[in-house]
C-alpha cells in the first residue's frame, strides 16, 4: 500500500526531470503535453491523505528549478522577439537626441528589398 501512495510522487519527479531536459534543450514545443500530465499528477497528489515531507521537499526543489528554467526561456524568447522587431524597423526610423537632450525620431525611407531587372 505504501508504494501506491508514492506512485504519483515518483511519477511527478520523473516528469519534472523530463521537463528539465526539454527546457535545457530548448525544445519548447515538447512542453505542452507535459503540462496536462503534470496537472493530473498534481491533482492526484493533492488528494492523498499523507505525503512524505522529504518527497514534498524534493518536489518543491525541482518545481522551483524548472520554474527558473521557464523564466529563462521566456526571457530568451522575449529578447529574440525584441531583436527581430528592431531588425524589422531598422531603416524606417532612427532615434536621436537633440542638443537639449530631448529624444527625436527621424523617419527613414524603407526601400524595397527586391529589385526587378530587365
UniProtKB/TrEMBL annotation:
GO terms for biological process: bacterial-type flagellum assembly. InterPro entries: FlgN-like_sf. This is FlgN protein. It comes from Salipiger mucosus DSM 16094.
